[in-house]
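Q: Here's a chain of 312 amino acids. Please give me its 3D structure as C-alpha cells.
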Amino acid sequence: MNLELAIQVTDLTKHFGRFVAVDRVSFQVERGEVFGFLGPNGSGKSTTIRMLCGILLPTSGTGVVGGFDVAREPERVRERIGYMSQKFSLYEELTVQENLDFFAGIYGLAGPDAVARRDEVLILAGLASHRTVLARELPGGLRQRLALASAIIHRPSVLFLDEPTAGVDPISRREFWALIRGMASAGTAIFVTTHYMDEAEHCHSLAFIYQGKLIAQGPPSVLKRGLHGALVEVEVEPAALLRALEALQAHPQAREAAMFGAKLHLTLESRDSLPVVRAALEGRGITVRRMEAIVPSLEDVFVSLVAREVGA
C-alpha cells in the first residue's frame, strides 16, 4: 500500500441477499485529506462506512484503512480510527471530563498520558471551561464538539464523521469545520458524509454515490467545471413556480430543470437559448422576473448527477 494513503478501496461490494447495497466502489484518501462522501439517503454511504470501520464484512473487493485490511484485520482497523455519528451517543449523565476519561480508558490510555491527552482535546474542542458540565446540559454545538473530542482522544490516524453537524446551527457548524480542517492539517485523514453542500466545499476531494455506485469523484472545483452546458437561474412569480418548472422540464432545449428554494435552476446546451426559453415561459402567461446564467454550485452538480442517473 502507498504509505501516503490512509484509505484505499478497490471494488468494495456488499450484498444483502439479492440487494446490492454497495456496488464495486473504488477510491483513495490521502493522509491529511478531507474526503467528502455524498449521496441521498439509502445510497450506500452508511454501509460503506460500516465496512471501512471493520464492523460489516464486505461481500467482495478490498478496503485498507490505516494500513490494515478491513476484512482480515478488523480489530487493528478499529484501533486506528475514530468514529462520530450524527446522533449524540455519549453518556448524558456524565460530565464532559468524565466522558473523555471513560473513552480514554476504552482505548487503553492510562495515567499521565490519559490526563495530558484529555486536557489537550478539551482545549482543542473549546471545552476546557465546560469540563464539569453534564453532557445533557450542553447546547447542540458543544455536544458535537464533545462527541468529536471523544472520537479523537486516542489519536486516530483516520477519522470517520457521519453527518456530524446535522441539526447544528450555522455558527457552530462553521466552528466545527475549523476544527476538522485543523486536524487534517496535522495529518489526520477525515472521511465525512454531509447533506450540507456548503460544507462539502471544504473538502479536498468528493465522491458521489447513488444506488450503491460511485457516479463521480474529484475535487469540488473540478466537479463543478464538469457540469456540461449553461446553468441558468430563473425567478418567476411564486404562484407560477410549479407551472414554470413543468414548462421548463418539457422544453426541448432544456437538459435539466429543478426547483432551488423559491427559484428554478435550468441547464441549457448554450446561453444562446435564453431568449427562446424566456419567450416560451412568457407565451404561457408566466412573468419572468429574472433569467441569467450563473456559476454552478455543488448542489447543482449533485442534482445534475442524480438526474442523469435516473434518466439513464
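Q: Can you summarize the key feature?
A: The chain has a mean pLDDT of 91.
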